[in-house]
Amino acid sequence: MKHIVSGIQPTGSINIGTYLGSIRNFVRLQREYDEHHFMLFIADLHAITIPRDRLELRKTIKELAAMYLACGLRQENLSLFIQSEVPAHSHMSYLLQCFTYMGELERMTQFKDKAQKHEKGVTASLFTYPALMAGDILLYDAEYVPVGEDQKQHLELTRDIAIRVNNRFGEFFTVPKPLIPKVGARIMSLTEPTAKMSKSDANVKSRINMLDTDDIIRKRIRSAVTDSEASFYYDKTNKPGLSNLITIYSALADISIEAVEQKYKDVSYKDFKEALADLVIENLRPIRQRYHELIQSKELDAILDEGAAYASKISNKKAAKFNHKLGLGRKRK
Ligand code: AMP
Ligand code: TRP
């Protein structure tokens, strides 16, 4: 079975930026690559490289799992699981650290960025994070790994590690290829449209969360910053607010930017905002309903149990083989 592997970090609430930039892409890929099996996991071990509140983390893990399913991932070719429930991940992380050089880890831009932000308590795990990620991928001999541009460097290191191991032991790991979306919509803040829409923005009006009510969604869109020119066209530099709203419309309706411009060119900003609010509400309502069904259900736990069981089966086997290659433990009969 050919695998596609990806992990998502359980941090904070999920907004339409994450939905349009990442989750929807995943749902699309799953349909496109229907001969592959998707191993999608909640990367909770990665999340604790930075201190987290335990109850908050636990809540976020489940919310994220439910939200991914609610957004339309299908069961047929998917194993959804929680990373820490599959012990081979942390084991493999250690083994791969033995094949990773300090100099390589020191070059990782994400480490440099995060270390700068948390200069007081930079953990060793933040430093070795890419080896954990390499393990996540190599354990399943993933052929493809869908990630955002920011993870490209980690994936290159994963490939280097795989090649290094293969050079020493013969073809042991599949060398994975990244799948980076060509034009992932980058959704901007509704109040400050030159910055990315982000869950960490202190201003709640800057974003639409996936679980916001219809009323809140409409309010957020009505109060979104635009400009005073009152002519309807896409221009990211001079009309970032309106352009962002056009982008959201285009992504949700699955039509081009030009088609949105054409459709609303004779309409006031106010009327366009109402149409956009209708569209967002219409798209999010069924997701929200499904989410609420799932989050309270045994179904979600069953899906996660099944995912962990399948992932454990494959990863335990691979890890045991690697132990054996390395001469760890006793010779197996
Ligand atoms: P995060 O929730 O920030 O860890 O990001 C999870 C995924 O969603 C990553 O692939 C991001 O690139 C994507 N993402 C997050 N925020 C946005 C945004 N405002 N626009 C587009 N993509 C986003
Ligand atoms: N590091 C990734 C991120 O921050 C998440 C991740 C962990 C991942 N392990 C992975 C992504 C394996 C792809 C494959 O977004």
Compact description:
It contains 13 helices and five strands. With 333 residues, the chain is of the alpha/beta class. The protein is elongated, with a radius of gyration of 22 Å.
Describe this structure in words.
The protein has a 5-stranded parallel beta sheet. With 333 residues, the chain is an alpha/beta fold. It folds into 2 domains: 211 residues, HUPs (Rossmann fold, 3-Layer(aba) Sandwich), CATH 3.40.50.620; 89 residues, Tyrosyl-Transfer RNA Synthetase (Orthogonal Bundle). The chain contains 13 helices and 5 strands. The protein starts with a strand and ends in a 7-residue tail after the last helix. Helix 1 links the parallel strand 1 and strand 2. Bound molecules: adenosine monophosphate and tryptophan. Adenosine monophosphate binds next to helix 1. The site of adenosine monophosphate has 12 residues, from helix 1.
Structure summary, number of beta strands: 5
Any idea what the CATH superfamily of the largest domain is called? Answer: HUPs
CATH class of the largest domain: Alpha Beta
**Ions, cofactors and other bound molecules:** adenosine monophosphate, tryptophan
Kindly report the oligomeric state of this protein.
single chain
Query: What's the architecture of the largest domain in CATH terms?
Result: 3-Layer(aba) Sandwich
Quick one: overall form?
A: elongated
